[in-house]
Design a protein that fits this description.
This protein has 405 residues and is α/β, with parallel strands linked by helices. It has 2 domains: 149 residues, Aspartate Aminotransferase, domain 1; 229 residues, Aspartate Aminotransferase, domain 2, CATH 3.40.640.10. The chain contains 13 helices and 17 strands. Strand 13 and strand 14 form a beta hairpin. The radius of gyration is 21 Å and the shape is globular. It starts with 9 loop residues before the first helix and ends with a helix. This is Acetylornithine aminotransferase. It is an enzyme of class 2 (transferase). It catalyses: N(2)-acetyl-L-ornithine + 2-oxoglutarate = N-acetyl-L-glutamate 5-semialdehyde + L-glutamate. One of its GO terms (biological process) is L-arginine biosynthetic process.
């Protein structure tokens, strides 16, 4: 066996393409909602791998499935299907509005497939002129060139040459702006039921219903990006289930594999049929290893007790953040749903969200930003009361550190 080299954080600056600026510490193991670094220092994880580790770290049921499937079958290529893929697809369509599932590896890939599908459907059913995609400012849909162009944050798509055309952005929750822009040339409206990267901003129910009605009037497809809000994050299996609105296409990833890379695009039968063999594809998507793990994660999350627990834990966070704010007066509001919550900073702390994250690391708790003015929480759905209490104790110390700096 090759002798293990002593890895240090400085290696990142020497050998990794600098698309990120990671923290100074390197985590080496995790269990439930706790992480330990190379020095065996413990952190309470209230970030959840950015809403990925929905069942915490190294959940025993996921480890068991991964180990068993890993000894059985990993990959067979897309000219064959496999049992885990078919079981997972069956469970997902049975639990949702959808009739068909397409599996891939990431949220960006799921959204890429969704946008291509919408364009293809419109072209085949209505003609070449029906190609406009309407999306929303501050939205985020992935890092491929198509998805980053549909996303409503231009700093992610600037600097790469001409963007794909026929994509327009309007303010989120603005019904009047949508009414003015949408037309019979619109092929799809793309939205997150709750904008995650854009500041943890929920859609108004009236807005969501108006979007659905306008899409129906103009024969446009409604695409819900539930990459972050899906898989129990908001207290229902998918966020749309609490909105009184069904999409035509839904994308999900992040928590679907409980930490193992997998994504899905779900859609209706008539829409799915425009993707015939050869039109779209993926090498690793739907591999048996990923789908077996995701099936176990799906079974654990799609459970009434687990979903009810998400709502209960939302109450824990809101009460504790209110208590912290009563002392330190740094949050103007706490918004979001379930266990995707954003503490919006007051004017006095505008632009300092990362300072709270950095202070949290010093105090041994992991939280996130959602833009420069929002501290975001996206912990495991099965976060225990003990983990929560200790995490918020440490977060309180972090808040005090920033406020008194």
């Amino acid at each position: 066996m090759t002798e293990q080299m002593q890895v240090t954080r400085s290696w990142f600056d020497e050998v990794i393409v600098p698309t990120y600026a990671p923290a100074a510490f390197i985590p080496v193991r995790g269990l439930a909602s706790r992480l330990w670094d190379q020095q065996d220092r413990e952190y309470i994880d209230l970030a959840g791998g950015i809403a990925v580790n929905a069942l915490g770290h190294c959940h025993p049921a996921l480890v068991k499935t991964l180990t068993e499937q890993g000894q059985r079958l990993w990959h067979v290529s897309n000219w064959m299907t496999n049992e885990p893929t078919l079981r997972l697809a069956r469970k997902m369509v049975d639990a949702t509005f959808a009739d068909r599932a397409f599996f891939c590896n990431s949220g960006a890939e799921a959204n890429e497939a969704a946008f291509k599908l919408a364009r293809r459907y419109a072209k085949e059913k209505f003609g070449e002129q029906k190609n406009q995609i309407i999306a929303f400012l501050q939205g985020f849909h992935g890092r491929t060139f198509f998805t980053v162009s549909v996303g409503g944050q231009s700093h992610y798509s600037d600097g790469f040459g001409p963007r794909p055309g026929a994509i327009q952005h309007i303010p989120y929750n603005d019904i009047a702006a949508l009414k003015e822009l949408i037309s019979d040339s619109t092929c799809a409206v793309v939205m997150e039921p709750l904008q995650g990267e854009g500041g943890v901003l929920p859609a108004d129910k009236e807005f969501a219903k108006a979007v659905r009605e306008l899409c129906d009037q103009h024969n446009a497809l409604l695409i819900f990006d539930e990459v972050q809000t899906g898989m129990g994050r908001t207290g229902s299996l998918f966020a749309y289930m609490q909105m009184g609105v069904e999409p035509d296409i839904l994308t999900t990833a992040k928590a679907l594999g409980g930490g193992f890379p997998i994504a899905a695009m779900l859609t209706r039968e008539a829409v799915a049929q425009v993707f015939q063999p050869g039109v779209h594809g993926t090498t690793f998507g739907g591999n048996p290893l990923a789908c077996a793990v995701a099936e176990t994660a799906f079974d654990l999350i799609n459970d009434p007790a687990m979903l009810a627990g998400v709502k209960e834990r939302e109450g824990w966070f809101r009460a504790e953040l209110e208590k912290i704010n009563a002392e330190y007066h740094c949050f103007s509001e706490v918004r979001g749903q379930g266990l995707l919550l954003g503490a919006v900073l007051t004017e006095a702390f505008a632009g300092k969200a990362k300072a709270f994250v950095d202070a949290g690391i010093e105090q041994g708790v992991l939280v996130l930003v959602a833009g420069p003015n929002v501290v975001r929480f996206a912990p495991a759905l099965n976060l225990t009361a003990e983990e929560f209490a200790e995490g918020m104790r440490r977060f309180t110390l972090a808040v005090a550190q920033v406020v008194k700096a």
